[in-house]
Amino acid sequence: MSEVFKGSFTQQEPIPDAGIEAAIEVMKSGRLHRYNVAGDDPGEAALLEREFAQAMGAKYCLAVASGGYALACALRAVGVEPGEPVLTNAFTLAPVPGAIASVGAVPVFVGVTEGLVIDLDDLAAKAGEARVLMLSHMRGHLADMDRLMEICDAHGITVIEDCAHTMGARWRGRLSGRDGLIGCYSTQTYKHLNSGEGGFLITDDAEIAARAVVLSGSYMLYGRHLAAPEEAVFEAVKYDTPNVSGRMDNLRAAILRPQLARLDAQCAAWTARYRVVEEGLRGAPGLTVVERPEEEEFVGSSIQFLLLDWAEEKINAVLRRCAARGVELKWFGGAEPAGFTSRYDSWRYAPSMPMPESDRILKSILDMRLPLTFGFDDCALIARIIRAEVGAVFQGE
Ligand SMILES: *Cc1c(COP(=O)(O)O)cnc(C)c1O
Q1: pLDDT, tens digit, 9 for 90 and up, residues 39-84
Q2: Of 8, 56, 107, 334, which is most buried with the most CB atoms under 10 A?
Q3: Distance, CA 52 to ligand 1 centroid (Å)?
Q4: SS3 string of the chain?
Q5: Cα–ligand 1 centroid distance for 186 (angstroms)
Q6: How many independent structural domains does the chain possess?
Q7: pLDDT of 380-394, one tens digit each?
Q8: Distance from the CA of 67 to the center of ligand 1, in angstroms?
Q9: Atom of ligand 1 at shortest range from CA of 92
């Protein structure tokens, strides 16, 4: 009998008790809106922002309704205009080009390497085409951030980082989200903190921070923030910054604060699981493990491997055979968008030039989440199943 995996790839851990208790307190108080505070209690949302700014080493932090909102808010805060081209990754998830489209701007896709990071040669070639790069650290893979910033600095490109998969990760010791002008994060259920929906934006730039706070819907209550710039900065921007409502509420903030306190331990737990799967897959015939650079301290909340130059029907056979044994793989190369995955050429509102080298890689990417509800034995079993099924299809069984 062949082994079958019985776990769920979409089952996250429960919210920690402290988060549940804090959430109940907020509900008992009835004060869910972030500016509905009593006495000298600053409210959960303001406290969360102060704690997240501190955890990331940023001067300013704004908590918002979603990661996608944080990205669009960042684009607005840097003054991206309708019709303006914005560089971004060809390998990313739909909310990234979607955020660009939401401000009327036009995504210009930059290719992907076998390391699953933005192709820096392609970026250098296209650097003259835009003044903003929305950089997606897709699936937790960090590009050489030193070289990337050199290219962008040389061309005067403002970098906005999408850290939906890199909260807690580092490049040469620097936390992800701290190289660009703005770092954006998601606290949607499948990310590194879970409030169902939610997000953050961090920056050291006072004017950008003030614009973001007003954009998020602070009205003239920005003085209640604990991780925002001083009054004078708001005075300079408050009349010409629209309110594009997208606030975080106190209930979600209450759920998030205890999770933030244990972020480092969670990140280490993900990466330990990743290493077990990676070891189990290494050397499997026909399969390419994505080697991680030494400078990268990644968070292994998901894992990818490549089936380079495999025929479509063989990849489909691997997906089917793994699924039959309980292992749910996602394929980024499918011609039709499915589930959470889609290809840059399926975002038809954003016309793209063909990128044959990237297409070859995208076609080969198989992906899987590693929720912390999986134990090490689960991870080893999953790797055995993938290894066996990839091997069987590779050898034409
Ligand atoms: C989840 C995600 C987002 C958007 O986050 P939401 O909170 O779902 O809006 C952006 N980029 C990437 C790469 C993501 O995975």
Answers
A1: 999 999 999 999 999 999 999 999 999 999 999 999 999 999 999 9
A2: 107
A3: 18
A4: CCCCCCCCCCCCCCCCHHHHHHHHHHHHHCCCCCCCCCCCCCCHHHHHHHHHHHHHCCCEEEEECCHHHHHHHHHHHCCCCCCCEEEEECCCCCHHHHHHHHCCCEEEEECECCCCCECHHHHHHHHHHCCEEEEECHHHCCCCHHHHHHHHHHCCCEEEEECCCCCCCEECCEECCCCCCEEEEECCCCCCCCCCCCEEEEECCHHHHHHHHHHCCCCCCHHHCCCCCCHHHHHHHCCCCCCCCCECCHHHHHHHHHHHHCHHHHHHHHHHHHHHHHHHHCCCCCCEECCCCCCEECCCCEEEEECCCCCHHHHHHHHHHHHHCCCCCEECCCCCCECCECCHHHCCCCCCCCCHHHHHHHCCEEEEECCCCCCHHHHHHHHHHHHHHHHHHHCCC
A5: 6
A6: 2
A7: 999 999 999 999 999
A8: 5
A9: 13
- Do 390 and 307 touch, CB atoms closer than 8 A? yes
| Angle separating helix axes 263-281 and 376-394, nearest 10 degrees | 30
Judgement on whether residues 183 and 311 belong to the same structural domain of the protein? no
Cα(82)–Cα(105) distance, rounded to whole angstroms? 5
Domain hosting 291: range is: 263-394
Q: Which atom of ligand 1 is nearest to the CA of 197?
A: 7
Model confidence pLDDT, tens digit, residues 266-309: 999 999 999 999 999 999 999 999 999 999 999 999 999 999 99
Ligand 1 atom nearest the C-alpha of 69 is 9
- Are residues 125 and 224 located together in one domain of the fold? yes
pLDDT at 1: 63
Could you tell me if 86 and 80 are in contact, meaning their C-beta atoms sit under 8 angstroms apart?
Answer: yes
Q: Is residue 229 within 6 Å of ligand 1 at its C-beta?
A: no
pTM for this entry:
0.97
Same domain, 59 and 80: yes
Q: Which residues of the chain have pLDDT under 50?
A: none
Residue whose Cα lies nearest atom 5 of ligand 1: it is 67
Decide whether any atom of ligand 1 lies within 6 Å of the 138 Cβ: yes
